[in-house]
Specification:
single chain; mainly alpha; 3 helices
């Protein structure tokens, strides 16, 4: 038969494992080992807490960077759409005909401006045009819903 500490005891061997204090010494060693294991785990938990805090900080910074990219994307869209509005205003002010019969640089084209932003941004961000289009839509929604 084995005791939890690993000492073999057998009724046929008189005195085997019956040393006075032998079991006490073993229990003290096991208790010390348990404390060592607990300390190792506490140290690992402390290190893990630092890593988790670092991950949280990195994710927060990543979110801030992504928000800045969305804001810049909206700025690009605003620039392109404002340019088309300026072209339209210029045509009214200077009585330059625009419309279906007038093609070229004098005709404001909001769809072309939006498409240009999608293409330019998708190349700059290395994303598909579909994903970039969704980001532009998000930027427009955020612009209308959140304070500047």
């Amino acid at each position: 038969m084995r005791k939890p500490g690993g000492y073999a005891t057998d009724s046929t061997h008189e005195g085997a494992g019956d040393h006075e204090g032998a079991g006490d010494h073993e229990d003290t060693e096991n208790h010390g080992d348990l404390d060592s294991f607990r300390q190792i785990r506490r140290d690992a938990d402390a290190a893990a807490a630092e890593l988790i805090a670092s991950l949280t900080d990195r994710r927060r910074n990543e979110n801030i960077t992504a928000a800045a990219a969305i804001h810049r994307l909206h700025d690009l869209l605003d620039l392109r759409l404002s340019t088309e509005a300026d072209i339209h205003q210029h045509s009214i002010t200077h009585r330059t005909p625009t419309g279906r019969t007038q093609y070229g640089v004098a005709e404001p084209d909001i769809y072309a401006a939006r498409l240009a932003v999608e293409c330019e941004a998708s190349v700059a961000l290395s994303l598909s045009r579909t994903v970039t289009s969704d980001m532009i839509t998000t930027s427009e929604q955020l612009h209308h819903r959140l304070p500047a």
